[in-house]
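ok so for the tutorial part 2 we go from a plain amino acid sequence to predicted structure tokens. step 1 is just haveing the sequence, like this:
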Amino acid sequence: MIVSRIALSNFLNYSSVAVEFVDGINMIVGENASGKTNLADGVLLASIGKSSRHTKDKELISWNSSKGAQVTLKIKKRFSSHIVDIIIDKDGDKHIAIDSLPIRRIGELMGVLNVVFFSPSELALVNGTPQDRRRFLNISLSQQSKVYFYALQNYVRLLGERNKIIKQYKDTSSIQNLISITNAPLAREASILVSERNKFISRLSDIAREKHRRLTSNKEDLSITYETNAGTLDDPKTEILALLEKSYSRDLRLEHTTIGPHLDDLKIAANDIDLRKFGSQGQQRTAVLSLKLAEVSLFKERTGEAPVLILDDVMSELDEMRRRSLLESLSNVQTLITCTEPTKEASTGYGLFKVQNCDIARCDHHDTEM
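step 2 — the prediction. this is what the tokens look like for a chain of 370 residues:
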């Protein structure tokens, strides 16, 4: 799939701009804080309904605008094409339409445009918290499977209800019955999450290992292990239900649910060294890049189409060998690369765009002076 066109209106630092991308590599060049990432953020917003950096939709409206913001994308897929419109009104409320038809649930947006996003902040996938790694799982799997997305929504809701019951009724005689009622539906949704995560990581680890060997000239062997407290995964629903019942006393004492996929983690290791704790920044960066490239391949396996890959301000962090290896692996994948200057390892077959003074212009490859 590809994004053939994006139009932004009153979105972050852009008052009005439109860009037509090429099918392959699109190099978006500009000085720091010129708005390169804002353009990439518009693409991500149309994919998952969220910004990479802003938690409140109202923050996406240009500060000097009295109106709302709008992002419109034209998307081409193998057998279809779509237009995604996102309007954020002046009060910060978000309205999404696909092919001019408003959607009621964000789940309807999932899978229309699949995006793999990589920026320096994505290092948190390795050196950050378990929550950062779960976020990676949830974003990727939600795009690939609506079943997973809705199971995740249901699980978060049910988990919140169970924790609320624990806190409010822990000293009452009815607490055990109330908790028991929540266990079965919670275990049902949890079993979907852990099963999908386990299958995803099993395949992702195999692909990432090959990507990593190429990026490190066969010097490092990467492994990714799914860490969950949900049992052996032979019968996830039954096992999780039993664990929830067993954890009853502990949950009351700690006032929250201590069993379930909301506590999952990923172990990421190179040559048996846990990169979460002992990896150098260079090792961590290469591991994340291998994971993202593996994610691209896995999207293609599971959906039949490659996603759009966004590399936001990461090329300068890689040495020449890794940049060349990366670019060589991007055939048949539309890629948006934001950078302060064109990457010399890229071939001539790419689109070059200059970002300057809140505007974006397509230019020839030799016209790169800022």
